[in-house]
Amino acid sequence: MSIKNRPNNQKEMSFIEKARRAQIVECAIETIAEVGYTQASLGEIAKRANISKGVISYHFENKEELLGQITTEYYIAWQSYIAPRIEAQKSPKEMLRVYIESNLAFVAENRKHVFAVIELVSKTITANGKLQFAAEHDEAVFVPIENILTQGMQEGVFREFTKSSARVMALTIRNAIDGFTMELMRKPHVDVQEYTRELVTIFDISTRKQGVALEGR
Amino acid sequence: MSIKNRPNNQKEMSFIEKARRAQIVECAIETIAEVGYTQASLGEIAKRANISKGVISYHFENKEELLGQITTEYYIAWQSYIAPRIEAQKSPKEMLRVYIESNLAFVAENRKHVFAVIELVSKTITANGKLQFAAEHDEAVFVPIENILTQGMQEGVFREFTKSSARVMALTIRNAIDGFTMELMRKPHVDVQEYTRELVTIFDISTRKQGVALEGR
Amino acid sequence: MSIKNRPNNQKEMSFIEKARRAQIVECAIETIAEVGYTQASLGEIAKRANISKGVISYHFENKEELLGQITTEYYIAWQSYIAPRIEAQKSPKEMLRVYIESNLAFVAENRKHVFAVIELVSKTITANGKLQFAAEHDEAVFVPIENILTQGMQEGVFREFTKSSARVMALTIRNAIDGFTMELMRKPHVDVQEYTRELVTIFDISTRKQGVALEGR
Amino acid sequence: MSIKNRPNNQKEMSFIEKARRAQIVECAIETIAEVGYTQASLGEIAKRANISKGVISYHFENKEELLGQITTEYYIAWQSYIAPRIEAQKSPKEMLRVYIESNLAFVAENRKHVFAVIELVSKTITANGKLQFAAEHDEAVFVPIENILTQGMQEGVFREFTKSSARVMALTIRNAIDGFTMELMRKPHVDVQEYTRELVTIFDISTRKQGVALEGR
DNA sequence: TATGAATGAGTATTCATTCAT
DNA sequence: TATGAATGAATACTCATTCAT
After folding, report:
1. Cβ atoms of A81 and A144 closer than 8 Å
2. What pLDDT, in 10s, does the model give residues A127-182?
3. How big is the B-C interface in CB pairs under 8 Å?
4. Nearest to D137 by CA among D118, D164, D156
């Protein structure tokens, strides 16, 4: 029976099968990261993996499933990396710092994967001809920041945010992080530590309650 | 003789020729904005322009030239819009505010064009198989902000920035602006005025010299 | 503008366009007749037409449209051939004779086309995985015979038919005609005239009102 | 050693081996009957049989052998069913009646198998690119009817048939039977008994010696 | 200038077949 | 015996580009 038709493919998937899929996904990531989404044909991916095109079709229902796997794995890895680090913090201020720090660290440690996902997401936007953002994932990404902002505001350490100004702040933080990825692509040797420090500073300052902030100095 | 083979096509280009190219470029922008880069084939563009595919090939060396034109025109329009508004300001603080305000206004007024360029840039990144950002343009974009930051620092109204921390700040501002475009795509009815106000606040606070800032309040 | 997207392609189709389509359809018919439906790939058809595969895609939306054209043209040609010949007859007996005669003549004169359609219809049966006969066409084919039978019965020259026995007779006549096509494929030099005479005899006898029939002898 | 390479595989075939092949053939029949020849890939057949694709390749030289088995088994089953029933009759008239009756009964009782064979035959016609009917089988099919007709003619109960008019009659009877199968596919609930009665009537009338026939009434 | 027509390389996908385990 | 894995040829279709008119 073909893998594709298995009812419960998650559980029935053999070790070898998982490994093969993982290898192909890995190769797809590298291919996209190196030649871009548009050039990343199944043929190109297969060539780089030193396998025949058919192998990919054997292990994945279609191209969409393969690419979907990249995104899914990314979000899982990202969440597993970020969440515990934030939860280990006590104050919102620290949480925000760690959010930024761990995101940049994650990006720096998974450059290719992150870049591949950025490519994928940017193409998915208009996949079927109509603007259709990967809304679930996308919006899920903002939740942790918005939570941190809300909490910090309630505890009185952050300045006041309305619902929509909180969203702008959340978006701006996310954009800063995603933008860092692009900068990393342009300049692979950028000083990650310093970039991190600067971002932390920027958003520490701009979220801080003004009076309190001064006292802290 | 085809236009393509003319030695000096820039200068010899007739009025009609220019108009035709402009029309095609306009159509290409709309097509990309509506159906996305991947679906924006020459055939699709031609269909929307009610012309034959051959016409595009006649007026443009190849697809790359057509798409390049979109980007080029965009930067020119952007610069013509932004530059005078900034230059009309006296203080760096005002310049930064106006930079953000005029950028968001420009984006809001030229949604399709801006979105098309974003689509293009994201695809151009790996056009030839190697990462190749539209470096000239891209870097040029940061110059005005970096100039503002430097000036503000020298005048003592902004906090201290090293060369690299100034770049991080410049990037973060740009990313916030580009991110606004994406938000505008996701939620076309977002309150532009409010978003603008929030961004101005965020970057006003985070660039401000701490002591001075308080006095200003 | 591509032909495919024209709203009213029937009318706007140029002479050259029509000719090209006709040529391709002709070639497709020959290909199917010679190598069978399964082997009749677009590539094979193109090869026999001495054109590139792309030409077919240019003139036809997809393979389905091309093959559909074969069937459609066939039914039109068939009807144009059969109908006037039947209508020229006065008695149902003559109409039945002419129906058989003209069908066999039509088949003999359009062997390839008829065989191609038989191939196509037999494949269409299970096109989407479920039994789905080309019902409209198929059922339409029985109508003229059923009409003749009914008329002959009402005039008292044919024996009595219930609704379902009339259908069986109609089907049997059609099957005899389609079976002749197969025989023609197996034995291209079969004596058409004789075959026709025999079929006419068989169905003349088997529809005839028994008493009346004898008088006629 | 693979079965395929065994010199005398017919005789050496074990019981288990036979059973396995039978099971696969059975499954192939159902698959073809349900999804049609074109969709009946080895993968599909294997899936329905709950075995791996490789098993089929292990037990059958290639797809052709598997499909050939379907046809062969069909003819054997058909012959075993029809022959004794005809032989049990005394008069040609009865033999003809029983031939039609038993054929329709056989079809009705083995719908899937019969339909699968029809699908196969229609595709096999042009299997290698050239028209190649399953001639042996096919021609063998006409023999019993031709024998009946000859006998009936010699006994003076059937009208006169030349060699070729006998063939037309034989073909027409076969076509009527095969056509019934198609009707059964289109309308599974068709009244088999009634259809049978009608066909018997039609061919009783059309073979009958005219004078004799009347007397019989 | 503009067009319709044609091209051919490239895309994802399917599938019969092979083979090591 | 049976299997999962792999292969590579074949298929329909897309599209940037060329070219004669």
Report:
1. no
2. 544 455 455 556 778 888 999 999 999 999 999 999 999 999 999 999 999 999 98
3. 7
4. D118
**CATH class for domain B74-216?**
mainly alpha
Whether C217 has a pLDDT exceeding 90, the answer reads no
- Compare CB distances from D36 to C34, C125, C205 and report the shortest one's residue: C125
pLDDT single digits (tens) D52-90 = 999 999 999 999 999 999 999 999 999 999 999 999 999
Could you say which architecture CATH assigns to the domain A71-216?
A: Orthogonal Bundle (1.10)
Q: Could you tell me which chain B residue has the CA closest to the CA of A39? A: B129
Tokens standing for residue B126: 């790996």
Estimate the share of chain A in helix, then strand, then coil, as percent rounded to the nearest 5: 75, 0, 20
State pLDDT tens for residues A68-105. Answer: 999 999 999 999 999 999 999 999 999 999 999 999 99
Q: Residue holding tokens 């699908």?
A: D119
CA distance B109 to B76: 15
Q: Is any Cβ of chain A less than 8 angstroms from the Cβ of D52?
A: yes
- The CATH topology of domain B13-60 is Arc Repressor Mutant, subunit A (1.10.10)
Whether D133 shows a pLDDT value over 80: the answer reads no
- Report how far residue B2's alpha carbon sits from residue A12's, in angstroms, rounded to the nearest whole number: 62
The pLDDT score that the predictor gives to residue B15 is 84
pLDDT value at residue B125: 61
A14 touches chain D (CB under 8 A): no
CA distance A5 to chain D (A): 9
pLDDT number for residue D175: 95
How near does any CA of chain C get to the CA of D66, in Å?
A: 18
Instruction: Measure, in angstroms, how far nucleotide F18 C1' is from residue B17 CA.
Output: 21
Closest Cβ–Cβ partner in C122, C127, C205 for D206: C205
- Residue C126: predicted pLDDT: 58
Residue C213 binned pLDDT confidence (cut-offs 50, 70, 90):
very low
Identify the sign of the CA torsion A86, A87, A92, A93. negative
Subunits close to A (at least 3 CB pairs below 8 A) = B, D
3-state secondary structure of B111: helix
Chain D residue numbers with beta carbons less than 8 Å from the beta carbon of A1 are 46-47, 50, 52
B50: closest CA of chain C, how far (Å): 7
- To test the contact with chain D by mutation, choose from C64, C132, C169, C182 the residue with the greatest count of D C-beta atoms within 10 A, namely C182
Asked which of B11-20, B81-90, C160-169, D158-167 is least confident by mean pLDDT, the reply is: B11-20
Measured distance CA(A53)–CA(C54) in Å, rounded: 24
Q: Please report the pLDDT score of residue C40 as a whole number.
A: 94
Kindly give the parts of chain B with pLDDT less than 50.
1-9, 127-131, 133, 212-217
Residue among B104, D123, B176 at smallest CA distance from C120? D123
Sketch the domain layout of chain D as residue ranges.
10-60, 71-216
Domain C75-216 carries which CATH code? Answer: 1.10.357.10
List of chain A residues whose C-beta atoms are within 8 Å of the C-beta of residue B129: 34-36, 39
CA B148 to chain CA centroid, Å, is: 18
- The residue of D100, D187, D198 whose CB has the most chain C CBs within 10 angstroms, and thus the best one to mutate to test that interface, is D198
Residues C118-136, buried b or exposed e (16+ Cβ, 10 A)? bbbbbbbbbeeeebebbee
Please give the structure tokens belonging to residue C136. Answer: 């409209």
Query: Alpha-carbon Rg of chain D, whole angstroms?
Result: 20
Of 3.30.70.1060, 1.10.10.10, 3.40.50.11720, 1.10.10.60, the CATH number of D10-60 is: 1.10.10.60
Contact (Cβ atoms closer than 8 angstroms) between residue A132 and residue A103: no
Q: Output the pLDDT for position B210.
A: 72
CATH number of A1-61: 1.10.10.60
Mean pLDDT of chain C: 86
Q: What is the mean pLDDT of residues C144-173?
A: 94
